Batch of 2 targets.
Target 1
Amino acid sequence: MKIDALHNETELLTEIAAGSEKAFAALFHWYRDKVYSTALRLTHSSFLAEEVVQDIFLKLWVKRSSLSEVVGFEDYLFIMTRNHVFSILKRMARQQQLVDDLQLEMPVAENTTYNRIIDLEIEEIVHQAVELLPAQQKQIYLMSKEQELKRDEIAKTLRISSETVKTHLARALRHIRAYSKLKLEITISWLLFFLVN
């Protein structure tokens, strides 16, 4: 269902431009899933897709005064989402390239210290990511990684299907990877600053 089926889109954007939180909530309700779907398709990460949704609607609220001038809001929102996702992916790729270059240039002793710091940080970040998992995903992930149980063994213990275990593990790993990438950006930037300067 399109938003203008309930409310004229132009009027809604005009109300938002005037600062109406109720109108903005309606906009969020109708377009949140579209932004999420676009971001998920481009990033293949539910965690990143959720981050994109928050970023996009924050941007829309910050620049709300100009929304009344937008023609074809759905296309405008798609382009805005796509560009934001590409910016995130480029930033992550640049960050990884910096790390790779720095490791090549470092003396062996410094490189070893750097890697040790990063390893400890990764361990802590993964722990944080696991703690944020939904209860069943967390339980299944820990049974797999810490107890080293096979999928069938986990399924039998929890009385669920092997396919359900597989789905939970895949979702848990996607979340952990996405969370770790975002958190590591901050750590790596900090280390680059002190190690390069």
Note: The radius of gyration is 22 Å.
Target 2
Amino acid sequence: MTQFYEQWLDNDYNPFVLFDLNGKIVMINQEAQYLLSQVFAKELFDMASAYANVTFGFKTTLFDFRFGESLYYGITVGYMDDTHIGIKLYKTPVKRFTSLNENGEFINIYSLLDLCISAASVSRKIIFKKDFDPTFPELKLQIEKFTQLVSKIFDSYRNAASITTKLAVKTGEYLKFNDKRYPMFLLSIEGDKRDVTRERIIEQLAQGMNCTVCFKPGETTVSSPMICA
């Protein structure tokens, strides 16, 4: 039975790490191994120490945060003595694709985003910044719908002092559909003073497209599979 519990923990969707008193990793599951390819173990140990119960036992704290490329909505920290402390992070669920629309036109996504930025900057005193991965191939997109989606996200930050647009491939993440594997890309739009009343229309635009949208106080992200052929 002990082996069963260990295998269950190792295959858990949520990262788990057990540390010793000095912050050295004693046990780690597969999801945490992936997470630690993006963040330092000390960050997790410091978080465990900060959110631990004042006495022996377990404590769950719910709050939204990002580590590496994933969003989380809470943690559980536990320790039974002074020698070990464990932390489990709870990943925020994302919408799963039940279908994949391969219709669309091939386009240079850099040019498309530049067009959206140019349109959003008209008559606005907003500083637009870009941080683009330079290795993107031409992608097949529903151009009109994707442009509307990005434009509505920019509009939700219309009162921001500056907007930063980031484009990157989601390392190690794929969408498997009909025996094909599609790499995922992430479009991140960051700024202050986001108008949350625009969320509904942004989500409606994303429906029917190959996109999932996630909202945070200072950031809106769009994830989508890369259809390159």
Note: The chain is about 25% helix and 40% strand.
